[in-house]
Design a protein that fits this description.
One of its GO terms (molecular function) is carbohydrate derivative binding. One of its GO terms (biological process) is carbohydrate derivative metabolic process. By secondary structure, this protein is of the alpha/beta class. Strand 4, helix 11 and strand 5 form a beta-alpha-beta unit. Strands 2-1-3-4-5 form a 5-stranded parallel β-sheet, sandwiched between helices. Helix 2 packs across helix 4, helix 7 runs parallel beside helix 12 and helix 8 crosses helix 12. The chain has 12 helices and 5 strands. Helices cover 51% and strands 8% of the residues. The chain folds into 2 domains: 84 residues, Orthogonal Bundle (Arc Repressor Mutant, subunit A); 180 residues, Glucose-6-phosphate isomerase like protein, domain 1 (Rossmann fold).
């Protein structure tokens, strides 16, 4: 995210998950802060990940400053008060910033691989409870019946889109991830029709432009499958099917495990629905592998 600087003497915009962080606001003002406010600023910088769990009086006590000094600092940073600053920190955690995920930005302490495994299993279980078997069935049938499948994803969502494509092309053709390296989406969107399907993988943190891509697809009647997490807003309203998985566990960095499992589940279900046609495609692929002597 691009940092936006603000002069020390001017107002700072209201908190927003995609706007300047509390840390950025403090650093912009740090050199001009009075000693008491600077002490509190240091405490906040050390505990930014846990800010939403504190009361203003607790932070003031940790810094050894008065409540009045705390009020002046938060107002100087552009907040009406501590409650608004705490909401801003919570919004950034919901947005998926690893700095705000878990204690001191590093999440719960890992006592060993078993701890992480338990966390992943919990995320998988919670995700399964969110998914409708009937919807999975419908989505798989739609992917088998589509003339072409277009997939899209950015950041971590990109490798998930690539993974799903790799499974699908083993038993059907015309599956493309867009845009390619150095390309833009417009050239692909111009070719979408109602006989295609667009699969949008949009786990947090989502980039600008996804909404416009989905609106363009919807405008020409292309059905949309959305794979996302509980923090998604607005995008589900544009999708024909929304599949939601959990990503936030007890440790730093979101988990892509449930989303990867969902992609595999979709591919396996679609393969079953592809029937003889899908099997014949797989056999042709395997014959080409043998002819090309691809594998050791």
């Amino acid at each position: 995210m691009t940092k936006t600087s603000h002069p020390a003497e001017g107002p700072t915009p209201k908190p927003d998950a995609r706007g300047p962080s509390i840390e950025s606001r403090i650093h912009d003002h740090y050199d001009s802060l009075p000693d008491s406010e600077r002490k509190l600023a240091d405490v906040i910088l050390e505990r930014a990940a846990d800010l939403s769990a504190f009361k203003a009086s607790e932070l003031s006590a940790l810094a050894g400053v008065s409540k009045a000094a705390a009020t002046r600092l938060f107002q100087r940073l552009g907040f009406d008060g501590f409650d608004e600053a705490r909401l801003a920190a919570r919004a950034r955690r919901d947005w998926g910033s690893p700095l705000y995920m878990g204690a001191s930005g590093s999440g719960a302490a890992l006592s060993g691989p078993a701890t992480l495994l338990e966390d992943e299993i919990d995320l998988l279980r919670r995700s399964v409870r969110r998914l409708s078997p009937a919807m999975i069935d419908d989505v798989a049938a739609a992917m088998v019946g589509a003339r072409r499948i277009w997939l899209m994803g950015y950041r971590n969502s990109r490798f998930l889109a690539d993974y799903l494509r790799w499974q699908l092309i083993q038993f059907r053709g015309d599956v493309t991830v867009l845009p390619g390296t150095g390309e833009t989406a417009g050239e692909y969107l111009a070719d979408l029709t109602e006989r295609d399907i667009l699969v949008v993988v949009a786990l947090r943190r989502r980039v600008h432009g996804l909404l416009e891509v989905m609106e363009a697809a919807r405008a020409v009647g292309t059905p949309i499958i959305l794979v996302t997490d509980p923090t998604a807003r607005r995008l589900p309203a544009l999708a024909d099917w929304t599949l939601t998985v959990e990503t936030q566990g007890h440790f730093a960095f979101d988990s892509c495990g449930p989303a990867l499992a969902l992609c595999r589940f979709l591919a396996v279900t679609a393969l079953g629905k592809a029937g003889r046609r899908g099997r014949a495609h797989m056999e042709r692929v395997e014959r080409r592998h043998e002819t090309l002597d691809v594998f050791n």
